[in-house]
Amino acid sequence: MDGEKGHAILEAQSVDECVIEQRWGDYTAQDHGTWKTLYDRQIEHLTGHVCQEYLDGLKRLRLTAECIPDYEKLNRHLRAATGWEVLAVPGLIASKPFFTMLANRQFPAGTFIRTPEQLDYLEEPDIFHDVFGHIPLLSHPDYASYMQEYGKAGLKALDHKGIKFLARLNWYTIEFGLIKNNGEIRAYGAGIMSSFGETKYLINDPSSNWLQFDIDRVLRTGYYIDDLQATYFTIDSFESLFKQCTERPFVPLYEKFRAMPTLSPFEVYPEDTVLRRGSGEYWREFPKLKTKLK
């Protein structure tokens, strides 16, 4: 979702104004080495904890540790799989072109890669987050359809003051979602896939709550952007995610939920279906987070 990190956003309002050339030939040996380091490290730690659909996507799109992906080559495989394509952009872009791209099965991805000194933390999404995190699942038909519908919903939300609610949906599915996979709960969100710290926390720290995904709960639940998650929502499948998010219109929900209090990711409510109740030990030490919910 554009602008979540508070950085400057390219104000262009058309897709054409946002698109740039990747200039793949300009990447240095150090850049490709950084990609390999990040790729190998995440694969090692995600093994056994990431959904099979994501791993299938890596193979289908031929994304490897060898070098930074060339968007032109990547798009040949992605278009063949689901009709999606990656468009190079200079960074964060405004909401209208962002949603327009998604609605047209185009994913805006940055072109820069972090430095070796930034391996563990980067404020603005780079090519590793955008491509390694997001793109493999776009080769899955149900997830690809969900992302397109998310884009269409975003365009409607611009006219109905609903962006806040769709940002929450983005956060708890596209960025930090979990999924039931062959009897286990696995990760699929790009913010987990591309973040070494979030991956370690999810796997090793019992602090977080894992709740069954419910569209109303998610749209009403605030989030914070600068620390690890207190709650993850778990879907049954990408097909079920698509169904829940398309079986009734969002626009009437915006007015309804605007008049209701924001729910907290730090709380478990009686109506929640709890898959794992977290200890809360990690985020209990950071009460300031509770005042920074979006």
What do you see in this structure?
The chain has 294 residues and is of the alpha/beta class. 44% of the residues lie in helices and 10% in strands. The protein has 14 helices and seven strands. The protein has helices spanning 15-18, 29-46, 52-60, 71-82, 95-103, 127-134, 141-159, 163-175, 190-193, 196-204, 215-220, 238-244, 251-258, 281-284, and strands at 85-88, 106-109, 178-181, 184-187, 209-212, 231-235, 274-276. The strands form two sheets. The chain has a five-stranded mixed sheet with strand order 4-3-6-5-7. α5 (95-103) runs antiparallel to α7 and α7 (141-159) runs parallel beside α12. The chain starts with 14 loop residues before the first helix and ends in a 10-residue tail after the last helix. The model is unreliable at 1-7 (pLDDT under 50).
Question: Main attributes?
Answer:
7 strands; disordered N terminus; two-stranded parallel sheet; five-stranded mixed sheet; alpha/beta; globular; 294 residues
